[in-house]
Input
Amino acid sequence: MNHLSEQEKTTFNSILSDLIAIPSVKGEPSDGAPYGVQPKAALSYFLKRASEDGFIAENIGDKAGYVQWGTKGPLLAVLGHLDVVPEGSDWKTEAFTLTSDGPYFCGRGVVDDKGPVVSSYMALLRFKKNHPDPDYRVRLIVGTDEEHGSSCMERYCETEELPDIGFTPDAEFPCIFAEKGIYQMHFEADPDGRFTLHGGNAANMVPPYCECIDLKESKGISTKGVQAHASHPALGINAIDLMLDKMDPALLSGSPLLLLMKKYFSGSSETPFSSFFGSDISGAMTTNVGIVDISTDHARLHVDIRFPVTISGKEVRKKLEEAADEFGVKVVDDSVQPPLFKDKESRQISVLTEIYSNYRELFPYSEDEKEKRAAAISEKAAPIAIGGGTYARTMPNIVAFGPQLPWEKDQCHQANERIIKESLYLLVPMYEEALEKLGDIITGK
Output
């Protein structure tokens, strides 16, 4: 294993700092910027940098792009994303400034997913140096709409070559063999007119703040939760959920939308709705009310559901419609990403799991992670299932591989997102090895 040189670290830090400084949250579409100007800015920066470093760099409809080394043979791909979720509240530092806090990098995207993208890019730089004329191509594909359904990869797949093998550094270690299905549902109802209520800004985030204003009394109340990723709602505290317990019961009783939430989606772990379905090898269903938007002229609720791999989206939809009908609520929009399931014994997953196993004891850790780390390392590394959704489900032959370690607290979508610097640096030789060993598979070695 070859650790990063000081010059490589300087390059790494510079690229990551530039990317974090771009607040690439999805915005209003405009000419040449289908997801808003900031995601486009992040894509443009990355492709320009890669071109200057001697790579083939292609823009795919201003939605995605790729950086490639090699001109012949089968195709290996690494998939990452440059868009991020909104910063939310309660940051101790500037969310869109790469900040050094002792051993940590802090900033929106250092974990999800700009940091791992830079690690992958640095691995590709090394691969380029060590393999001036490889017998297979390596392509780093970057998208800018992962957080809102991955339509960027749909666009890529319309016109571009699909990879023979690859991985996405946007999940957890050791390696992911199954991803739960994702169902996002938008409900609407007639507004009560007596109050407004607003909370959350993304369906796939546990909302950290909610505010209710009683229009007749001209007074408002607020609740403060803890932000987290919707795939792990129990790690957060849902401020909308708290509001249901705090607001005037008379106002609550007049809102079909909130009554629907109260009965079926209240709770951070198992909710009444998730209890309709059992668990399987991928775990139990989770639900998250990510957005509530009630004004005098509309009332909307956005729910994010992660369902086990043995359940179909149609089954989830049927139960959602039954729940909505009970309260006279309308289902106005929905999107579903089917579950992903891979063979745990495949050579691809076995190789990646072995690479992780060989590196895991080298990763730094904090004192409060010591006990959990020791327990994780004492066990044989094995592929796992997750509730999160990655680019692995957007095209064949891709699995998720890192960067979160088994003993680490989930940082995705949370305030003060952070990662140990040396962990990001260690991903570089690790991912470089993955490029070489996966290359052996597709070239028949």
